[in-house]
Amino acid sequence: MVRWIATGTALAVLVAGCVHAPPPDRFAYLKVVAEPPGTTVYDNNHFLGTAKILAKQSKALSPGVRYLTFKAPGYFPHDLRLDLPVGETVVRIKLRPIPP
User: What share of the chain is helix, strand, coil (3-state, %, to 5)?
Assistant: First the structure.
């Protein structure tokens, strides 16, 4: 039994080592400056954070095409197709208010 646990642990370490993550200099970093600052940012319906946070701390993502959605109460949502390169990209957006 002890031998099986040790083998299973070694296998788990080997499998974990096979997960491919880009080296730090190969990430795309997304910074968002939005109006209103409470705008929420989604990547393919996956919550990335609020613009207030993403303006201060860039989000590390894999480079490539992203489909971003920006939402805030009382404003029209905005969709954006973005091809993120390696390095930092700053997105500046001002959402349009919904008329009364």
Answer: 25, 45, 30
What is the CATH architecture of 22-94?
A: Sandwich (2.60)
Beta strand 78-84 pairing with 64-71: antiparallel
Contact assessment for residue 27 and residue 85, using Cβ atoms and an 8 Å cutoff:
no
Q: How many CB atoms lie within 10 A of CB 42?
A: 16
The domain locations on the chain are: 22-94
Residue 30 pairs with which residues in a beta bridge? 59, 89
- What pTM value is reported for the model? 0.73
For 16-43, what is each residue's pLDDT tens digit?
444 455 555 789 999 999 999 999 999 9
Q: What mean pLDDT is predicted for residues 86-90?
A: 96
Question: Are 75 and 98 spatial neighbours (Cβ–Cβ below 8 Å)?
Answer: yes
